[in-house]
Backbone:
C-alpha cells in the first residue's frame, strides 16, 4: 500500500474503524478506497478498475452508475427532501411504495412498515411478535428460533439471531434466542442419506427443539431462504416445506429474512417463491433501494397485522419508529429500483437470462483441486475451498485460505468476499455473459495461483495430518 502519510489510505487507517474487516490483512494491504463506478465495475483512487463480483454487499444490483435512480432522487430532493411517518404523517412516495410492495409480495400482505436497514427490519419483526403475543394475553410466547451460521444483522436482537460464535464477545445472544441446524447437505448429510431425508432429519430436529422448549414459549422462527453471510448456502430439496409444516403444527410465526434474496437474487422475485413457502412476516432491505439509500421494510400477513392491531388498540398506538424511516427520497429511489428490476425486459429478466450461464460457469470449478463444492441458485453462488476433495478436509483456519483467494482476486481486478472457507459470488443483476466469463476467468487464475502456494508450502498434507491427529 501507499506509504504517503497524507494518503487516503493512511488517513483511513488512522481515523476509521471498518466493519467486519480482518485487521492483519487491512494493516498489510491497506484499505481499498473507491472513487467511481460504471456498470458492474468500480474504480479505486489509483485508477484500478474492478469487477464487483458481490454487488457491494449483495445490494448494488442495478450497477454503479444508474442515472435514472439519481434523477428520481434529485427530483424528490427538490420537492420534499425529508419527512417521517410518526403521528399519522407521511410523504406521498412512501404511500406509493407500500402499495407497490404489497403488489409485488409473494403472499397476501396487509400492511408494510418502513425501517432504515435489514437489522432494523428484523428487530422490528421480533418486537411485533412480542407485542402481539403480549396483547393476546400470552406474554411468555416470545422465544425466537434462528439457525446456526445464520446472519440477520447487527443491532442487539438481530445480532443475537446470528448463529456465529463472535456474538459471544458482546455477551449475546439474548436469552430468548434458540438455534436449530444450518442446512448444508454437502457438509452435514450422512453417508447414503438423500437430500430429502436430510431435510426431514433437520425438520425433526426443529420439532424436537420446539417440544423440548414448549411451543407456548416460542413466538417465531426466522430464516433466510438462501443463507447469505452463512456462505451462500442453498437449502436441500424439500427443506422449507417440511420446516413450514412443523411451524404451522405448533403455531409459530415464520419470518422470512429476504434481505438478500428479495427482489430477484435467487431467480424468482422472492426466495420464498424459489423454495415455495409462505411466510407470515417478510423482512427486506438491501435490493429494495439497490444500496443507493438506506431503507428496509417489514411486510405483514393479514393475520399478523390483525393481531398487532389488536395489541396496539390497548395502547392506542404501535410504540416504535425510526426518525428517518419511511423517507421520501428512499421511497422515490425504491420505486425506481423496483421499476428497473421488475419491468418487462428489465434487470430481473436479464438475471433470469444469464443465471444458467452463471451457474454453469460456477459448476466448471468442480474439477479444480481446491474446490470441494460449487453451489448456487439464480445469481448467487459460492465455491467451498477444501484441502482435500475426497475427505472434504478444510485447510487449517490459520491458513486463512478464503481471505487469500479474495486478496489475490483483488490484485486481479475482481472484488469477491470470503466467508470462512468459501468464496462468494453475487454480481449485479445487469451483468452479461461475457462479463460472467471474464469474472470466472479471473477467478480461475487466482485459484491456480493459490494452488501453487498450497503445493509449495505443503498446506494440503498439513491439513490432512492435523485432521488425522484430531481424530
Ligand atoms: C445484510 C443482512 C441483514 C442486515 O441488514 P443491514 O442493512 O446491514 O442492517 C439482515 N439479514 C440478512 C440476510 C442480511 O444479509
Residues:
Amino acid at each position: 500500500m501507499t506509504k504517503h502519510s497524507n494518503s487516503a489510505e493512511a488517513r483511513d487507517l488512522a481515523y476509521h474503524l471498518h466493519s467486519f474487516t480482518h485487521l492483519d490483512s487491512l494493516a498489510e494491504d491497506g484499505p481499498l478506497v473507491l472513487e467511481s463506478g460504471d456498470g458492474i465495475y468500480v474504480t479505486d483512487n489509483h485508477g484500478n478498475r474492478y469487477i464487483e463480483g458481490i454487488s457491494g454487499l449483495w445490494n448494488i444490483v442495478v450497477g454503479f452508475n444508474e442515472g435514472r435512480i439519481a434523477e428520481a432522487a434529485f427530483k424528490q430532493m427538490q420537492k420534499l427532501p425529508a419527512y417521517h411517518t410518526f403521528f399519522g404523517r407521511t410523504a406521498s412516495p412512501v404511500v406509493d411504495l407500500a402499495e407497490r410492495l404489497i403488489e409485488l409480495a409473494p403472499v397476501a400482505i396487509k400492511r408494510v412498515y418502513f425501517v432504515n436497514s435489514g437489522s432494523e427490519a428484523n428487530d422490528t419483526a421480533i418486537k411485533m411478535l412480542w407485542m402481539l403475543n403480549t396483547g393476546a394475553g400470552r406474554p411468555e410466547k416470545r422465544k425466537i428460533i434462528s439457525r446456526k451460521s445464520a446472519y440477520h444483522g447487527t443491532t442487539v436482537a438481530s445480532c443475537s439471531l446470528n448463529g456465529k460464535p463472535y456474538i459471544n464477545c458482546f455477551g449475546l445472544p439474548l436469552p430468548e434466542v434458540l438455534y436449530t441446524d444450518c442446512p448444508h447437505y454437502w457438509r452435514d448429510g450422512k453417508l447414503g442419506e438423500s437430500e430429502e431425508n436430510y431435510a426431514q432429519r433437520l425438520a425433526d430436529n426443529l420439532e424436537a427443539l420446539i417440544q423440548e422448549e414448549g411451543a407456548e414459549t416460542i413466538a417465531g422462527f426466522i430464516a433466510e431462504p438462501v443463507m447469505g453471510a452463512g456462505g451462500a448456502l442453498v437449502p436441500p430439496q424439500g427443506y422449507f416445506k417440511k420446516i413450514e409444516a412443523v411451524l404451522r403444527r405448533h403455531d409459530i410465526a415464520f419470518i422470512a429474512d429476504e434481505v438478500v434474496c428479495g427482489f430477484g437474487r435467487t431467480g424468482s422475485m422472492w426466495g420464498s417463491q424459489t423454495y415455495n413457502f409462505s411466510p407470515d412476516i417478510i423482512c427486506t432491505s438491501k435490493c429494495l433501494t439497490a444500496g443507493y439509500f438506506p431503507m428496509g421494510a417489514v411486510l405483514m400477513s393479514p393475520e399478523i397485522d390483525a393481531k398487532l392491531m389488536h395489541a396496539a388498540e390497548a395502547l392506542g398506538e404501535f410504540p416504535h419508529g425510526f426518525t428517518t424511516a419511511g423517507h421520501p427520497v428512499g421511497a422515490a429511489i425504491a420505486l425506481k429500483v423496483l421499476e428497473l428490476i421488475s419491468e418487462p425486459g428489465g434487470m430481473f429478466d436479464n438475471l433470469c437470462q444469464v443465471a444458467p450461464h452463471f451457474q454453469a460457469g460456477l459448476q466448471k470449478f468442480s474439477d479444480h483441486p481446491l474446490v470441494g463444492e460449487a453451489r448456487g441458485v439464480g445469481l448467487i453462488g459460492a465455491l467451498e475451498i477444501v484441502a482435500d476433495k475426497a475427505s472434504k478436509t478444510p485447510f487449517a483456519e490459520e491458513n486463512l485460505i478464503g481471505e487469500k483467494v479474495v486478496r489475490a482476486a483483488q490484485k486481479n481486478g475482481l472484488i469477491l468476499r470470503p466467508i470462512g472457507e468459501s468464496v462468494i459470488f453475487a454480481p449485479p443483476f445487469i451483468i452479461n455473459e461475457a462479463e460472467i466469463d471474464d469474472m470466472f476467468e479471473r477467478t480461475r487464475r487466482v485459484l491456480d495461483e493459490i494452488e501453487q502456494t498450497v503445493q509449495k508450502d505443503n498446506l494440503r498434507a498439513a491439513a490432512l495430518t492435523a485432521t488425522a491427529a484430531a481424530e
Q: What stands out?
A: The pocket of pyridoxal-5'-phosphate is lined by residues 117-119, 122, 151-154, 224, 228-229, 257, 259-260, 285-286 (CB under 6 Å). The chain has a mean pLDDT of 96. The CA atoms of residues 370 and 449 lie 11 Å apart. The longest strand covers residues 371-377.
